[in-house]
Specification:
31% of the residues lie in helices and 27% in strands. The protein is α/β, with parallel strands linked by helices and 209 residues long. The chain has two domains: 1-77 and 152-208, Rossmann fold (3-Layer(aba) Sandwich); 84-150. The strands form two sheets. Strands 6-7-8-3-9 form a five-stranded parallel beta sheet, with helices on both faces. The longest helix has 16 residues, at 166-181. The radius of gyration is 17 Å and the shape is globular. The N and C termini lie far apart (37 Å). 33% of the residues are buried.
Amino acid sequence: MRVLLAQQVACEKSDRQLFSDINIELHSGQLLYVTGENGAGKTSLLRILVGLSQPAAGYVEINGHDCQKMVHGASERLLYFGHKQGISQLLTATENLRFWCQQHAIDTNDTAIHATLAELGLTGLEDIAVKNLSAGQQRRVALAKLWLKTDANVWVLDEPFTALDVHLIAELESKMAVFLNAGGAIVMTSHQALNIDYPMSNLHLEYSW
């Protein structure tokens, strides 16, 4: 089943064209790895794919919905993990995830949230303000969203391995493999090599002046 379609997508930034004529067709169980130099437009492309930025040209559809016209419908089964972690420094890990689950109509409770945080190595830190956690621990709090949103069928991940140790990178790669084998689809960028035994497609963005 097709879950993401991009046709002739172009992006401009500060009067410079980052890319043009990008065409993507992603189906259930497929992994697309987006590569390119810094400044080539990887993050800009991912933001366009999830409806957070407008393309200079082209069309994007997720789960049969036009990203620009029906953002809610397009995002119901989409999970975007970007550079900004989307967590409040003033709230605890539990409070952050409880609020996020409420915003996304995810039926959960603190027991399930604590179990997820424990799986990510945050036992004992559930009720500490995020501002008092290390960068890696804060990243784990944000990553817990991948564990909690079980109805997602598309993950769009922008540098998901940033600030993670080797153990957690391996755990996230394992989680990705399980998601793909269950029929999920992933679009991602990373400066690190992906160590996952799963077929993938590659889209390379060239830096243009």
